[in-house]
Amino acid sequence: MKARWDIFCSVVDNYGDIGVTWRLARQLVAEQGCAVRLWVDDLRAFERMCPEVDVQAAQQWQEGVDVRLWPAHWPTTPAADVVIAAFACQLPPDYMEAMAARERTPLWMNLDYLSAEEWVVGCHGLPSVKFKGVQKYFFFPGFRPGTGGLLREAGLIEQRQAFQRDSQAQQQFLQDLGVVPMAGARLISLFAYENAGLASWLEVLAADGQPTHLLVPEGRILGDVQRWLGVEALGAGQVHLRGALTVQVLPFVRQEQYDRLLWCCDFNAVRGEDSFVRAQWAGRPLLWHIYRQDEDIHLDKLDAFLERYTEGLSPAAKGALIALWQAWNTDADMGANWKMLLEHWPEVTAHAEKWCLEQALQADLATALVHFYENWI
After folding, report:
1. Burial class (CB in 10 A: 0-12, 13-18, 19+), 2
2. What chemistry does it catalyse, as a reaction equation (predicted)?
3. What domain count does the chain have?
4. Quick one: 353 and 368 in the same domain?
């Protein structure tokens, strides 16, 4: 019999949590043959990336996944063989009792946040707390051998490379979104949290000798873009031109379309976790807006990734990339740092593809989870 999996997702950061768990649930079904229930406490956030979702339904099937609304009053339901608490969310007490009541206790894992910090390797797979004999384990995605790897569907890199070689397919995809860049324009995607440093970056892009077409999916950064443009309202479909910079707002798209948007662009500014990983699979230079945490501990996480990501770059290119990322994540002036990065554009572009291919040598996250379960039983 196929193993039954329950994945619990408490939506905290709008789309990152559900983005990761939705990709994982679909991959476990499609590639690993698992039976998956995905428990979500905010179906409206889910609807943005899966428009077919009925936000009123307590239970529904989407792409082979049994999607359940995580109710305030937990129903009587048997626990699965494998239980994943995504991003340290707290399981319902009644469900925990159901886990303990099973004749064979389930494998209970805390799927933690992605980090490049060295301590992750030592903690990955270790036992955590127990509940009435049910042992919980830490499971860390990561960029190093000895971690759980990254979410990556089978054949993803090959699909991306074929798409990037097909200029007609890219042009058609962009046209379907209403995007028609002028010849020779640099294409940049921008998906970020609010950022006071954005205006300085946009000023430099507008004054550049090369045209830039900036694609901004609907999200939290729109307010900053709107203020810089000096317009009263900014929404999907609008296009504004200032100097060498064209700003175009895109509607929120489903995950497969967002992947292709990243593949089309020369540079991708992304946020959180899901889009961060997908930008790496795009094989193009990127800029990560990490989720802020108290006492700026997120900057340690940022520095840990930069230390690993920039291995192999020349000192000048490494310094330029680190300076840009640090400026972006501290609301600092972006102008001089962006110009510095442009001086090393061929090198950082080649490095992005090299990094992608190196990461693809590791087992993907879904496969690593299944192997962990198989070893456990």
Report:
1. exposed
2. dTDP-beta-L-rhamnose + L-arginyl-[protein] = N(omega)-(alpha-L-rhamnosyl)-L-arginyl-[protein] + dTDP + H(+)
3. 2
4. no
81: left (phi over 0), alpha (psi -120 to 50) or beta: alpha
* Structural domain that includes position 197: 156-359
Cα 372 to chain centroid, rounded: 23
Q: Are residues 317 and 218 in the same domain?
A: yes
**38: phi then psi, degrees, rounded to nearest 5:** -110, 110
The closest alpha carbon to 197, from 34, 48, 324, belongs to 324
Tell me: do 34 and 143 sit in the same domain: yes
160-215 pLDDT, tens digit per residue, is 999 999 999 999 999 999 999 999 999 999 999 999 999 999 999 999 999 999 99
Residues tagged active-site? 17, 273
> Quick one: pLDDT at residue 48?
85
**Cα–Cα distance for residue pair 323/335, rounded to 1 Å:** 11
Of residues 2 and 301, more confidently modeled:
301
Rounded Cα distance, 249 and 251, in Å:
7
The CATH number covering residue 111 comes to 3.40.50
